[in-house]
Amino acid sequence: MSNLLNRRLALLDNDTYRPLLGQGLRGIERETLRVDAAGHLSPKPHPAALGATLTHPQITTDYAESLMEFITPAEQDISLALEKLDQIHRFAYTKLGDEMLWSQSMPCPLPDEKDIQIAWYGNSHIGMIKHVYRRGLALRYGKSMQCIAGIHYNYSISENIWKALQKAENTSGDAMYVQSENYIAMIRNFKRYSWLLMYLFGASPALATSFLRGRTHQLQSLSEDTLYLPYATSLRMSDLGYQNNAQDGLVPPYNSLMDYMRSLSIAVRKPYPAYEKIGTQINGEWVQINTNILQIENEFYATIRPKRVIHTGERPIEALCARGVQYVEVRCMDVNPFDPLGINLETSRFLDAFLLFCALDESPLTNQAEGEENTRNFALTVKEGRRPGLMLSHGGQEISLQNWGLELLEKIAPVAALLDAQRGDHVHADSLQVQREKLQDPDLTPSAQVMTAIRAENNSFYQFALKQSKVLAEQFRARPPSEEERRYFEELARVSVAEQEEMERSQTGSFDEFITDYRSRTSSQLCCES
């Protein structure tokens, strides 16, 4: 354990600071496809009874119209966020009719690209720019990619902890700057160690053959309708996901918030020839926000992002420039098909310990060589993580995945112990023990369990996924929301519809003017570009 981690744990392990560990916020965004009873992608629009996707705070869509996204309120205890996520699922099922939610990260067998509907958010300027952005994604990556689902884990540490560390360590700069740079240091460590999350929690080792639509690949055939890799943990996070030539090599430096924002700002302004050939409009209709490497900053497909709650119409980078980093969004977690919510409490407790470790441990500045090493370790783990004797690279030296993973868990253990001391229980230590057992026995990992289940269903990803989706649908339908919960969500839906209608009624100017103004806000006026 590093001296810095020792000092920080000692500082926080007292009656003054320990309670602050319970004051950070946690939230979950869960994506899931709507499918019919046969496991085919729903062609129907988002259920109107669930509210307006543009303005509803908890139930919306992402990318494809059929890709639902459930967003929990931010809570100090992740168990409360999971309870809220359960309530959202149970209410949604009262409005889905004969449809259900797909239980996997990788999509069901998909129809022709032309029959996959892009998410629609109404006729307001804000709604249209969200839709045009997704049109651009469809042109750049294909609509099939818009049907992949994941779990996003939002995590923050109490601002008072950052202030306490700044005072104890006599770090210069105002509180916003110090907090932001600490989050960036946390992200550096996350990039070093996130391969471990893919081994422990990856749950997409196989996919429907039709997903690749004839693209070249290196997957093996398990059956006529299923492709896989024998030791894969997460094909979703492999190069089969949101990757393209334009983003190759686009790895923003994480040595300061300024460097990170400057890198993305350049990518949002740098033209890309293939996109220039398409143009921004076809037959007078907007089809992408711009013809640059990225339409907006969020198009960069990162495993983790520094985040700040944005105002309506504000760009993510504007919010970070103005108000600094508020939390991080972990984006690499697969949907676990054996968990009704896609993620469970035990996994969440481990994520809390892992992320706090990344935040408190020594985090030296990085460079291109280390960035490439991190990328290789991650890529190896998602495709071959369960391969016996798999070797990763740590500081240029080879080390087995199992040994390095166990070493990391030993370093995380005192962080978990501190979190348990704050709570007065041992839930974080218990979760660490479960992860140790996975490192000692790969058959205990979700990816191995998924492969076992697929083999039991005629080696068919589709048959397993359909069966599991039906099981989970029956469980949710057997627990309908209470009358109070129903009224709460119906009111959220009513208010969201009213808000969207007001936005459409009160807006001024043309969409062309709106999008021109939006695009202009990547100019040198941004504080990150000196």
From TrEMBL:
Coiled-coil features, chain-numbered ranges: none
Pfam family, one: Glu_cys_ligase
SUPFAM superfamilies per record: Glutamine synthetase/guanido kinase
Signal sequence range: none
Xref: InterPro entries: Gln_synth/guanido_kin_cat_dom (IPR014746), Glu_cys_ligase (IPR007370), Glut_cys_ligase (IPR006334)
Catalyses which reaction(s): L-cysteine + L-glutamate + ATP = gamma-L-glutamyl-L-cysteine + ADP + phosphate + H(+)
Domain Glutamate--cysteine ligase: from-to ranges: 10-379
GO MF: glutamate-cysteine ligase activity
Domain of life: Bacteria
EC number of the protein: 6.3.2.2
Recorded metabolic or biological pathway in which this protein acts: Sulfur metabolism; glutathione biosynthesis; glutathione from L-cysteine and L-glutamate: step 1/2
Keywords annotated in UniProt: ATP-binding, Glutathione biosynthesis, Ligase, Membrane, Nucleotide-binding, Transmembrane, Transmembrane helix
Transmembrane segments: 193-212
Keyword presence, Membrane: yes
UniProt KW Nucleotide-binding keyword: yes
Family per record: Belongs to the glutamate--cysteine ligase type 1 family. Type 1 subfamily.
Listed HAMAP family: Glu_cys_ligase
PANTHER family referenced in this protein's UniProt entry, alphabetically: GLUTAMATE--CYSTEINE LIGASE
Name listed for the protein in its UniProt record: Glutamate--cysteine ligase
Lineage of origin: Bacteria, Pseudomonadati, Pseudomonadota, Betaproteobacteria, Burkholderiales
